[in-house]
């Protein structure tokens, strides 16, 4: 078990776990011992209402972001072309996957501006490969360490550095606006695991809010597989920072400490969904644990919101069972009818994320509609890694396995 730093997320999650356990005890022995009747039963009622309230706040904020972005956000005009960037592709040793990524780079990017940053030597046609020396020291670890080495080692004469993951397939795009950080959207592709892909549909649907991050706020997360940073800003911020979520923390520090302008573009770069549930769970675990550790980087006004979102994500599988508890709790729960109505509404609302994903993909094979009746299973798998990250942090960065020949 790795050392767990104190975090309000863990305190709130622990409180909910104990309170919901009380609800189970009350449901099983609600007419028994006076302690159950007089103490645990009111605790269960309060816990159920509190969980519903926090889940509702997180959902309401997501809705606000999505609706606001529809009304107010328009991507800025393109000022720089693809030729105005240097590309850096991060990998450990996935030679065949990286070759496909290099092959997809638009022709406008000059051959001398295509770089692969790797941990092991490899032969890549169409790009220069750089191996991070074992002796290079940095506060950052794993991927962040490689990014920092590349920042120090590679000269960049272009306006932007476009960072790609080893599996990012760049489709033709117009270029970059006059902004400090340019976030492109992702398009996870099916890689053989249907359940893992359905979990990605939930995530992509939820990330409809990402377009709202282009408004004057601190973005809540970033996708490092397709993000461009002004080269001068990269040298100001650096990657020399210990974190498990180097892309998101870099953006936070750039916006908060350096006043960087962050924009989101509609261009979608292809990437791969995790090839298995195991890979997906480990990925989500790292994301959640990393966000907990680095919450203090955010301004205080974001802390409560971030805590609510993390906890509701980890406890999402509980949501379908809120109504189940009602049928077994003895006595009269305060405002039981309202609670039932709101529970059904929130449960139905979560399907909006799948609907958003369906629109985002401009349609999918109809077999993926099975994700709707199996939604409780899908959201449980999507949240399993987050729940694990609440109670046990990974020791380091575990790259998600990629497949060759995915299109």
Topology (elements, then pairings):
Elements: H1 8-29, H2 34-72, E1 78-80, E2 85-90, H3 95-103, E3 114-118, E4 128-131, H4 142-153, E5 160-165, E6 176-177, E7 181-189, H5 194-206, E8 226-230, H6 231-237, H7 246-258, E9 262-272, H8 277-293, H9 303-314, H10 322-328, H11 336-349, H12 351-360, H13 375-391
Parallel strand pairs: 2-3, 2-5, 3-4, 7-9
Antiparallel strand pairs: 1-6, 5-8, 7-8
Helix pairs in contact: 1-2, 1-9, 2-9, 2-11, 5-12, 5-13, 8-13, 9-13
Question: Tags for this entry?
Answer:
407 residues, alpha/beta, Spore Coat Polysaccharide Biosynthesis Protein SpsA, Chain A, seven-stranded mixed beta sheet, two-stranded antiparallel ribbon, 9 strands, 13% strand, elongated
DSSP helical segment count: 13
The appropriate CATH architecture of the domain at 78-275 is Alpha-Beta Complex
Distance between the termini: 39 Å
CATH level 1 name of the domain at 78-275: Alpha Beta
Order of strands across the biggest sheet?
A: 4-3-2-5-8-7-9
Helix content class:
40-55%
Q: In angstroms, what is the radius of gyration? A: 23 Å
Order of helices and strands: HHEEHEEHEEEHEHHEHHHHHH
DSSP strand tally: 9
Structural class: alpha/beta
Topology-level CATH name of the domain at 78-275: Spore Coat Polysaccharide Biosynthesis Protein SpsA, Chain A
């Amino acid at each position: 078990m790795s050392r767990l730093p104190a975090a309000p997320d863990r305190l709130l999650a622990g409180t909910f776990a104990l309170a919901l356990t009380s609800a189970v005890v009350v449901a099983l022995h609600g007419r028994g011992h006076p302690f159950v009747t007089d103490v645990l039963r009111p605790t269960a009622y309060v816990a159920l209402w509190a969980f519903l309230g926090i889940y509702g706040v997180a959902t309401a904020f997501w809705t606000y972001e999505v609706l606001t972005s529809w009304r107010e956000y328009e991507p800025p005009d393109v000022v720089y072309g693809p030729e105005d960037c240097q590309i850096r592709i991060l990998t450990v040793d996935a030679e065949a996957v990286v070759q496909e990524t290099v092959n997809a780079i638009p022709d406008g990017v000059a051959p001398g501006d295509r770089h692969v940053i790797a941990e092991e030597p490899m032969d890549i046609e169409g790009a220069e490969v750089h191996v991070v020396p074992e002796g290079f020291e940095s506060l950052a670890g794993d991927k962040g360490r490689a990014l920092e080495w590349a920042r120090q080692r590679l000269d960049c004469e272009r306006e932007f550095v476009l960072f790609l993951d080893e599996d990012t397939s760049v489709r033709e795009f117009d270029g970059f606006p006059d902004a400090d950080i340019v976030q492109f959207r992702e398009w996870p592709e099916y890689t053989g695991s249907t359940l893992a892909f359905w979990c990605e549909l939930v995530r992509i649907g939820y990330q409809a809010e990402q377009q709202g991050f282009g408004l004057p706020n601190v973005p809540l997360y970033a996708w490092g597989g397709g993000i461009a940073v002004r080269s001068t800003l990269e040298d100001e911020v650096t990657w020399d920072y210990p974190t498990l979520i180097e892309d998101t923390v870099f953006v936070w520090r750039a916006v908060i400490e350096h006043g960087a302008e962050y924009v989101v573009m509609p261009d979608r770069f292809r990437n791969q969904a995790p090839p298995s549930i195991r890979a997906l769970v480990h990925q989500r675990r790292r994301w959640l644990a990393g966000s907990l550790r680095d919450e203090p980087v955010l301004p205080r006004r974001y802390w409560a919101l971030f805590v609510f979102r993390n906890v509701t994500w980890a406890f999402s599988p509980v949501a379908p069972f809120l109504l189940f508890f009602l049928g077994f709790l003895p006595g009269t729960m305060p405002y039981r009818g309202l609670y039932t109505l709101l529970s059904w509404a929130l449960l139905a609302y979560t399907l909006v994320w799948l609907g958003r994903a369906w629109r985002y993909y401009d349609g999918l094979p109809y077999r993926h509609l099975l994700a709707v009746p199996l939604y409780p299973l899908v959201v449980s798998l999507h949240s399993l890694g987050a729940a694990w990250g609440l109670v046990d942090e990974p020791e380091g960065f575990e790259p998600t396995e990629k497949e060759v020949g995915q299109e």
